[in-house]
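step: validate -> pass
step: tokenize input -> pass
step: predict -> running
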Amino acid sequence: MGKKIIAQNRRARHDYFILETYEAGLVLTGTEIKSVREGRVNLKDGYAKIENGECWLYNVHISPYEKSAYYNHDPLRPRKLLLRKDEIRRLIGKTQQKGLTLIPLSIYLKDGKWAKVELALAQGKKVYDKRRAIAERDARLEMERARKVTKR
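step: predict -> pass
step: emit ->
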């Protein structure tokens, strides 16, 4: 079946240099997975941290399931991520370097049933880096427009 993207963090590619990406499983409760399937997820301020040999996802908002009255969850609670031990060890070493952080790029359903997070090892961009990226994008769009005009 492939993967169905539920939510993306588009701002992350603007604010960070993406060095590596990892796929991690997401431990959710029953009402959380129902909300994820409805697409009620916000990754805007999310980040991941490794504590006691486990990877945790923070500040990812999964809205409470509307049709549930009793077993609802806290929308901003920390959620455990499932990674292999060798990946966690590698990430521990890399996140201790100055300026590197783990951020979620997207949440998706794999094969229609497993909730996964695409994590990125990222380094923050400076303001001048962001300006340069915007200028390059604008120049590329101008070239595309000019190419379309000359083809007509």
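step: describe -> Residues 127-151 form the longest helix (25 residues).
step: cleanup -> pass
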